Write the structure tokens for this entry.
Amino acid sequence: MTVPVSRDLLIINTAAFLRSFTFGLTGVVLGIYLFRVGLSSFNIGVVVAAGLVGRP
Amino acid sequence: MVLSLLGGIGALALAFTPAVPVLLVMAFVGMLNGTGTDARLHLLLSKQSFPDWCRTHRGHGPRLVQRCPRYRRFAGALAAALPLLLQRWLALPLLTSYRTVFFGCAFLGVVGAILYPFASVAVEVSKSATEATPHHVSPASKKVSQNWRVCFPLMRLAGISDGCTCCLLVFPALWSSGRKPGHPLLCCAPAECCLSSGAAWLARRIGLVKTMVFTHLPSSMFLVAAAFAPSLKVAIVLFLCREALVEMDVPTRQSYVAAVVLPNERTFASGIANLARNIFWAVGSSVAGFLMQNVAFSAPLVIGGGAKISYDLLLYRAFRNLAPPEEQST
């Protein structure tokens, strides 16, 4: 069976684009947003640390 | 597919902003890391899913796959202006426009997850291939891992000052103090994107280890200098210079690890290098918050920047005589 590599590449990369796009967006606004909702510097640091630990 | 859904949970966590303990759990599950970087698992998935493609397009294809995340991230970073645009266009309160954007991000996570089942079964790594992977690690790979472990304590300190710390803690704090730095964070990704693409060009001329060390070293110096900047504008310029250089060591480090260990041990060796980076990044973020609140505003930059400089020097000492095969022949 012929493997449609280009189609698979398109699917995997489109899905990856959506993921990276949202990660890129939240990466910029995360600190500002958490600061605006009232979290302290320490709590923001701990939230980021939790996210980094969870990132495979 | 699961990673996309989990990313959606992270965005939902921000949209609902529950109490801190719940937010911590959701940040962990949703990988809300604030560095703007996706799970490195995707790159691994691409390489594992398309081994023949990677093999036949050696040099161009894999490099393209490696660079793509930077450009995707670049697009996402530019989209960070959306909350402000929504506020202006729809006259929404700022926090509501942020939450609207986070709901959008969660939706994109679900859409991404839905796409994966449409890929053919060929992208799945065969069971026989994973079983055939030897668990034996060669002495050369062990040496690389051991050398990296020597640098671990400094990486722990260096995590205090990483870019995410500056983005997440320093700039919001300046913002809240009434000194608006504009949107320098939007410029970080483009600056990083432009120069990190030049890492391969530089590595061909001066070698992987020197590129890794001598691009990272000035970035750390810019970081320490930012702590002593006389004005906010100068601090932002120094920070952007730092961001432009800071990621140049990532592709070179991955290429270096891939070049000096056996092909079937690359995942192990890359895993050791990335695991160290992620863990100490996580520890550093929380320590940085504590230092800013209890010691001095610029303390994370000075301590972390100093540790990074020491780390670079130690790295150079450990690896300067361990050249990859393509550099040995020249």
User: Anything to note?
Assistant: The mean pLDDT of chain A is 77.
